Give the backbone structure.
Amino acid sequence: MRTITHWIDGATTAGGSSRRAPVWEPASGRQQAEVVLASSDDVDAAVAAAAAAFTSWSQTSLSRRTSILFRFRELVNSHQHELAELVTDEHGKVLSDARGEVQRGLEVIEFACGIPQLLKGEFSDQVSTDVDSWTFRQPLGVVAGITPFNFPAMVPMWMYPIAIATGNTFVLKPSERDPSVSMRLAELWAEAGLPDGVFNVVQGDKVAVDALLDHPDVAAVSFVGSTPIAKYIHERATATGKRVQALGGAKNHALILPDADMQFASDHLSAAAFGSAGERCMSISAGVAVGSAGDHLMEVLDRTARSVKVGPGRDTQSEMGPVVTSQARDRIVGLIDAGEQQGGTVTVDGRGLVVPGHEDGFFVGPTVIDDVTPDNEVYTTEVFGPVLAMLRADTVDDAIDLVNANPYGNGTAVFTRDGAAARQFVRGVQVGMIGINVPVPVPMAYHSFGGWKDSLFGEHHVHGPDGVRFYTRGKVVTARWPDTELSASLDMPTAD
Ligand code: NAD
């Protein structure tokens, strides 16, 4: 059985812990590897390596850092397919989708290649007679990333290219369910010339996470995962004085207005609900048909949902793969059952789907549940599977109220041809990322990504300008070079 190890100080190591977790192949249902689970001593070793590397890395010139980033960019670009295969084999998503994930991560590396421009400070000449003032930003030190299973390549890449470009050193704790791609990326960093200890990977579970949260030498924590854990991470890490950004779960609504093109809306709704088997924090899991939109939409939507080709991620014919584990599949099926028992009408049923040749794979087919009310468990819970709950609202105002009553505020979308209604929606919803006829409005790397309410704890969104701010701290300098005798005063200094 293959063992997936840590990457500490530029080398693989199994560490000192004997704990292991299985890594599954979701398409076949077989265990394909085991991953080591770090002890707190293993975490100490990674943080010590990162702390030692910080001294010289933070002093490395911008041009040297940038040339390493450009080399890393070239390597990730040329290994896109191999990285995507690693994602598909452990996560289950189809290969074309995994390539898209690597591509979106690559775009953050490309953003970070512009770090000299992004780190330029501000300068004010002659703020007082012979006095100048300027601001600049410096790295924090050792920073940690704790990431979810659903984007094992992209989500860590939301963090470490910017953290490293700004002069920090990084300890990544990836999901224990699909840990391999992070190890391959660590090798590519080394090949790009990144000094040992600047990027480290610690495999593990709660033990490793808690050790990072409590470690006195970790200055900041970036987390992406479910809401209860995000809340916990934020509380525990801020209690030890760390800077924290903790992105949580989601329940993303799409409004369909009666004037929308129903074929377009249903194609895109279906893609947004069933792409990556619904295991995206930006998946649409709640459709809200406004006014008379419902009946026509449901007819088209059911046809579209039934036509999705489900199969193993490596099969180029598949549009949707399995979910990540058998526990995830059973939980999703349980929530479909609950949705039906609580008044929903299952119009497309993915329970019990069997993919020939992959009978033991963790498959659930696309599922549409109509007549869902806001108190139904399939709506109140983040399902994180290929399940679209359909609700109704009489007016756009009612639909906005429904979105705002939900505790999550990650993403949302509206399908319409009416600019005034779209504007009303954009201004009225308490959600961080909004699409107009764009159902999965994931911002580009040069904008920042983040939700509102229970979808984000902390002040900073990830990547883009907020990413640069998160991983740096500002200084402002006021300077004079006196060549005449100046009298000092005990009064508050004022400009003259
Ligand atoms: P998760 O919260 O179970 O795990 C995330 C990370 O936290 C993993 O590294 C895991 O090892 C660690 N962890 C799990 N339980 C822990 C505990 N009790 N104490 C300390 N650490 C713990 O999330 P997941 O199932 O891997 O990922 C799916 C979730 O992530 C969904 O809720 C999804 O919406 C969310 N997500 C959010 C975003 C976003 O941008 N807001 C992006 C991707 C995924």
Remarks:
- The first helix runs from residue 40 to 57.
- The longest strand covers residues 131-139.
- The pocket of nicotinamide-adenine-dinucleotide is lined by residues 146-151, 155, 173, 175-176, 205-206, 209, 224-226, 229, 247-250, 281, 382, 384, 410, 451, 455 (CB under 6 Å).
- Residues 374 and 387 are 15 Å apart (CA to CA).
